[in-house]
């Protein structure tokens, strides 16, 4: 005996409806009935556990009725038992094709009805359980995915914070302000954008360029902070900040740190091959290095340093123009000039 269920019965013969209803009521089920399939479709919803339908009916026959049930996402999983006469046996195949689950023969035998209805209701209960489980599982996966996304976002943020702290530590020693890092990295982003790099690449450059001078952490103070000109030996030591930075960052396994290492190593290379530490030239210098070179020099010229006063923008641009094609990649330099308004806006936004 199955649990009480809500069953919809459809038949154009009122007597058949009455008979079926009585049998099913006796089994303890709630029954609603319709005299034709069109009406029955209107009565169908998720609360119905089972449908018993006649085959031959005016307006819409049993086949079309079952097809309509299966087409609707709301009702497609409701089991359907077709009530057929013996002569309609050949129609059973068509009914299966249409989507019927089982058959019962007229005149209806009470015991057969009980067995078939019981087995269909058990099937429906299992099906409902699976659907419920599936939906719970989906919910759980969605929730876990969200938690994971959040954790990833936090991790990325703390990762980026660490980079900024590292860079700030190097700058602290250099007596430059944090504003230099902000200006330099934002200049890089503007130039990268102007060169047509995609958003991810621009973001990568913005977040990794603050590490360009990280290696200065390894330069002795009497050289790094010397107010006057460095002698040749001191200069050689000063140049090693590129390799020290790349070495510190070299062990990283994130895109940011890897890019930071490239930038640390290459930001003093020159387009004509006279830069350091490797003397790379042209496009052998990674693009990030060529972009940082322009951004770094512009900021160094327009800022006060231990060895010099800040130059005016005009004077700085005049000096830089001579470096187009020798110090700087001409394409990068041209984009820098083209975007000068944005560069100057950044300069005033992050002034010392
Ligand atoms: Fe540098």
Brief overview, please?
59% of the residues lie in helices and 7% in strands. The protein is an alpha/beta fold and 352 residues long.
Description of the molecule:
This protein is an alpha/beta fold. It has 2 domains: 6-135, Rossmann fold; 175-349, Hypothetical protein af1432, CATH 1.10.3210. 59% of the residues lie in helices and 7% in strands. It has helices spanning 14-26, 37-43, 62-71, 91-98, 110-174, 178-194, 199-208, 221-224, 232-239, 241-250, 255-266, 287-302, 313-321, 330-338, 340-349; strands spanning 6-10, 30-34, 50-54, 80-84, 102-105. A 5-stranded parallel β-sheet has the order 2-1-3-4-5, with helices on both faces. β3 (50-54), α3 and β4 form a beta-alpha-beta unit. α6 crosses α12, α7 (199-208) crosses α11 (255-266) and α10 (241-250) runs antiparallel to α11 (255-266). The protein is rod-shaped, with a radius of gyration of 39 Å. Fe (ii) ion binds next to loops.
């Amino acid at each position: 005996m199955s649990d009480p269920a809500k069953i919809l019965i459809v038949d154009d013969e009122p007597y058949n409806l009455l008979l079926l209803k009585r049998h099913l009521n006796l089994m303890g089920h709630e029954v609603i009935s319709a005299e034709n399939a069109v009406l029955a479709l209107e009565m169908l919803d998720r609360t119905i556990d089972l449908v018993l339908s006649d085959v031959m009916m005016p307006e819409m026959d049993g086949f079309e009725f079952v097809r309509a049930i299966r087409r609707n996402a709301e009702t497609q999983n409701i089991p359907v038992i077709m009530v057929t006469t013996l002569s309609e046996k050949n129609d059973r195949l068509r009914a299966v094709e249409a989507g019927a689950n089982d058959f019962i023969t007229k005149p209806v035998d009470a015991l057969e009805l009980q067995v078939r209805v019981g087995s269909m209701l058990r099937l429906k209960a299992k099906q409902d359980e699976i659907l419920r489980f599936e939906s719970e599982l989906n919910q759980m996966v969605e929730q876990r995915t969200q938690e994971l996304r959040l954790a990833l976002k936090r991790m990325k943020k703390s990762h980026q914070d660490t980079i900024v702290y590292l860079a700030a530590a190097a700058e602290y020693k250099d007596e430059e302000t944090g504003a230099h890092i902000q200006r330099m990295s934002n200049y890089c982003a503007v130039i990268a954008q102007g060169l047509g790099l995609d958003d991810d690449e621009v973001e990568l450059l913005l977040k990794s360029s603050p590490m360009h001078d990280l290696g200065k952490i390894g330069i002795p103070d009497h050289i790094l902070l010397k107010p006057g000109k460095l002698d040749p030996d001191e200069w050689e030591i000063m140049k090693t900040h590129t390799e020290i930075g790349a070495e510190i960052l070299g062990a990283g396994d994130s895109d940011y740190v890897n890019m930071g290492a490239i930038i640390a190593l290459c930001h003093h290379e020159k387009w004509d091959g006279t830069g350091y530490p490797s003397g790379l030239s042209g496009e052998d210098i990674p693009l990030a290095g060529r972009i940082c070179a322009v951004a770094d020099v512009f900021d160094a010229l327009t800022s006060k340093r231990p060895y010099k006063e800040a130059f005016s923008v005009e004077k700085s641009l005049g000096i830089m123009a001579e470096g187009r094609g020798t110090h700087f990649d001409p394409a990068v330099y041209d984009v820098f000039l083209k975007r000068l308004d944005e560069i100057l806006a950044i300069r005033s936004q992050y002034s010392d």
